Every structure is written in structure tokens, then in C-alpha cells.
Amino acid sequence: KMSMSSAQTPPKLPPHSSGLSHLELTHLPCLPIPSLDQTFSRYLSVVKPLFLSDVEDQVDVPPSQQRENNEKSASTKCDEETPATRAQQHDENKISTPKHSNRLSKRASSSSVPNAAYEKTQNLAYDFVYGPHQMGPTLDKELRQLARESPHFLEGFWNSMYLESRAPVIINTSPYFKLRLDKVREDQCARAANLLMGTVQYARVVINDEFPDAMRYEVSRASGTNEVTRTELCLSQFHWVLSSTIAQYGRDYLKSTLHSKHAVVLCRHQFYKLELYNGETPRTEQQLYNELTQILSDAQSSQQHQILPVGTLTTANRDVWAGARETMMTDSLNRSSLAVIDDALILIILDETSPTDWEDIARLGMHSDGRNLWLDKSLSVTVCQNGEAAVTMNHAGYDGDVFNSWARFVTELAEGPPSVALDAPLEFIRIHKLRWNLTKPVIKLIKQSEKTVDEFIDSTDLSVLRFTHFGKSEMKKLRVSPDAFIQMSFQLTYFRLFRKTVSTYEPMNARRFLHGRTTTVRVQSKSSRKFTLCFTDPLASGHQKAESLRKACQVHQEQIKRSKAGHGVDRHLFGLLCLAKHNVQKLPGYTLPEIFQDVSFRRLRTDLMSTSNSSGVPGLVLQGFGPVCADGFGLGYIIHNDEITISISNFKKKSSMFKDVLRQSMFDMKRVLEADMKSNTSGMVTSKM
Description:
With 689 residues, the protein is an alpha+beta fold. It is built from 21 helices and 20 strands. Helix 1 runs antiparallel to helix 4 (116-130), helix 7 crosses helix 9 (285-300) and helix 16 crosses helix 18 (542-564). It is globular and about 70 Å long. It starts with 35 loop residues before the first helix and ends with a helix.
């Protein structure tokens, strides 16, 4: 692990943070930067499968095609190149990692690669690392210098990626989650009151440094043993778990609201300030329920069609919203209302529907109607009339693992008996309704935003797969990693539909490192491609299919271990790319290195399957997000003991088709593994007899 000056001197807290110094654990190790040749050796290994769909080489064709090729080669003339010779040359000449090291060994030869594009990539990688211009080593040296001067060498770039993006946050960077239905609080206001009370207590835990072990440590158990390892986790993301993202031209900024003593309630496009404390004492669940009930009554008494949906502005391009906000801020009434929303601990949305279909609930969380929302809050909880609850998360300041800590806390708190008497007489409370003074230009922007968000929502296809036939327990009996099983089911489904292996992203929690957010697991591999080829080959045996699946799952697990240790590919590449782009702007004549303009780099960064696993939190039953590219799929999943829930999104109306094939893929994979285990067991019995 590299040493950094920040490990001895506490870093200066960013402006608008919570100001809580105990969230800065400067004794934690820093995210390591692998050697340059190690990263690019691994880079070649994760981009190569993306080219095998173009021109397949002998070592990557299915068993039936291998047999056909072998038969053809036996009848060819002796002086012709055979598939076996070509495979041997491939092993001898490829630019890859020798068994004893991680170094790029030599430039490519035309016989060693699946096609010309990949050959170019190999040569560009070699030139970047070892070429005479020293472009790679120079950028790498700059990156390591940056690591010595900051808590995390990517932190500034990472913040810029979220805060300087001008794309709308709706669907693009706002994941949704469905909370488990609270059977004892199916009343809308009772459920909302309980979630508010839980959030107040959660904020006090963070402020008072009273983190339970589940929030402070990652606990792992060595396979086949009872040995438990606890790894301390970075707490810096908790500055922003309750916060607002403030829209500004060019770059937004984060504002922590952990210390806030009020929430905002949104109902029928109307905003209300709800006090969470009586002085220094949190209000009771009954008191919160009483005020929520009166807010709901007031909102329902208004003529909704006469109320402009101001929240729609938060769905717009960030500069469009920043301009509207700047105009609104010139009026004192608007300034006051915006300050109440910006400073609120959390946003509660009281919805007028009672959905039972999970896809309807998922759409409420992902985009709602594009009007009754405010996407600048880190947490927006939509509570329906039947007590169903969906959460929309603003991703700018923190990641899913920290969100999970909130979800676990508030849902575990809800397991206690209800403390609200629904039939108790309501004590009159003077509610605080926010008011607006909207000018014609702002009203015009609201109407334009409504039209734009309607088009975006219409273009977003969303399906939910509730797979109730088996779950984690059954996968473990089959001796495969549950996460790897699901990831390989995605690979098989995509291959069955499109006959391609594509770039697939899975984030991995990196909070074991100082200011760590996530690292990347690249799911596609040579083994995953062999698995999809074998599994779709009608002449492959059940044993061959089972073995290829197990091998692909094993390789995926190895990729996860490397990424957890900070030895993935993407973060190092991202840092080098950001520095190179910075040099293009500041150094006359500097051009972006060819490796970053190459087709391989574009393919790797075009995540046609973007995936995320939120398993392990009993109170979460579904999660999802939008695709990250025009032709891609957003695949959020939760693996329960006896059930798997998967959210599938797409911009090309293909999510339902993907769901149907995915369901069949999971059945087929389980059937093959079961049959292979049964065959192995019966074979052992026969041999003993």
C-alpha cells in the first residue's frame, strides 16, 4: 500500500460537508495503483472477448465447431496451416501475462489475434507502456504524485464526473429501491411517520459516532471454515448520505443536511416543511403521523391542475435547471422555499396510488410521473396509499453500500410494534406550506421540462423479474457463487439474444480504502465466452456445459477478489485518461494518447450490460436503474435465500424479451448443474460397488 501524507494529517473537510471529523479515518490504507504493465496486461484480457464475436479463433469456438474444424484439418494438405498450428502460435505469440509475471512481453503478430482491430490494440498497449515517447510512464508518474497529495487519487475526477455532468439525473444517475412492505403500517401516513423517525435516529447515529458494526465493518468468512475476518470501512461517504445536490452552471455542489431538524413533504406538487424536533428532542411517531395526516388533507383539498409542478425542473438538463434556479433566487419567497428544501434532512412524497404490481412500484421509484418529485435530495421516499414505499437515490455523493446502511437501519427499526394510534383524535397543528412566485420564463421552462421528461420516460422500458423458483440457498447447494451464477445468466441471456459478448460492468464496494467508493469487476472473460459458446452448442454434453459454467463462475470470483484488493483495470485507466484530458487542455500540442481513442477502449467503456447487486439487506426487495448507453441494459438484482428479483431497463423496448430469456437461462443453468452433480454422485457410488 502506498503511503500518503494525508494518512498522518487529517484532510481538510470539503465545504458544505457535515463537519464531522470522526468520519475521516485517515489510518485506513489507500487504494493501490497497480504497475502500468500489470494494468495493461489485464486490460488486454478483458477487451479480447469483445472481439471474438467478430472473428472467432480456434480456442474459442464451441465443441461441435472444434470437431468440425478438426475433421477438416485432417483432410487438408500438410503445408497448410491447421487450426491446431494456429492455436499453438496463438499461445506462443500473444501479448499477455506470462505465468510467472504480469508484464506485457512483446508486440503482436498477425497470427496471435482474433482480428486486425485487436492486433492494433495490443500494439498500442505495448507502445503506451514501453514506447519511446514514454506517454504511459509519464502519466502514471503524474497519477502517483497525485495519490501522494490527496486522500484518494481519483476523488477529484470522480466528483467532477458526477457534479459536472449536465445530463438529467432522472433515470441516468438516480437508482431506485423498493422497501419491504411493512405489514403493521399499511396506512400511508403511519408508514411515512415511521420512516421519518427512523431517518432521524439514523442521522443521530452518524453524528454521534454510534455506528453499529454492520455499518463500520465488512465481515467475511473464509470458505469451509468458521474463521471470521472484520475489515474496517471508510466512513467519509456518510457526510453525504443525507444531503442535497445544488444545481449551478457548469458544476453542481453537495450540501450535507445531516444536522437538519426538518423534512420536506411533497404531495400533489405541493411542498410542506415538517419539523422533526421539539426543541432538541425528536418528535414522536404519533406527532409526525398527526402532521402528515393534516398535510395530506390540505394537499387533497387543492385543485392539482392549477398547481405548477416545480419539481419537474430537477429532471431537466442541469444547466437548464441551474438557470431557472438562478432566476427563482432573485425573489425572496422563492429563496426561502428553496432553502427549506435544500436544507431538509429527507424528502417524503405522499403518492395518490395504491400499486400492487412491482413494475408499477419500480416506475414510481425510477421516474414517477416526472412531476411529483425533487431529484436533488440524496433520499426521496415515495409512500403510496397502501403503505408500499420506493426510494429514489441521488448518486452524486455516495454509493449503494452506504444507502444499504440506511435501508437496513430504518427497516429493522420498523420491526418493532407500531406506536401510532390511527383512531386517536388529531391535535391541530399549523402546517407550513411552501409558496412560489414564478415568473413567465420559469413557467415556460417548467412546461418545456414536462414535455422533455415525458419523452424520456416514454423511451425507457422497464421490466421486473420475480424469480421465485430458487435463490441463494439452492445455488450454494450446487456449489457455485450466487453472484457469479447471476452474472453468468446475464452473459448467457445476452449471447442467446444477440450472439455477442459485450462489456459488462459490476461495481464492487471499495470502502476498505481511504475515501474509497467503488472499483469495477469486468464480468466478460475468455471463460465466460467459452461458457456461452458451449451452453448454446446443441452437440455439447451436459458435463461440458456444467464444467464451462463452473469455470466461468470461478474466474468471476477471482476477478472479484482482485477488484476488492484494488487491482482491477478500470480505476487506473480512468485516472490516466483524466490526466491525459487535462494535459490536452493545458499543454499546447499535447494529443490524447491513441490507446484512449482506440476501438477497444470505446468498447470497454460502452457498458451494454451495467449491473449491480444489492443483496444482504432484508428490508430491500428490489433495486434498479437506467441503462448507461443507448443500446444497453440496466440490470439491478437482489439474491434472497429462496427468490431472486431483477430490474431490467432498456431504451429499445427489449426489457421484456430479456426477462423471458433470462428466466429460461437460469432454469437451464440450474438443470445442467443438478444433472452433473447427480451424475458425479452416482458414478462415485458405482465405483465403490
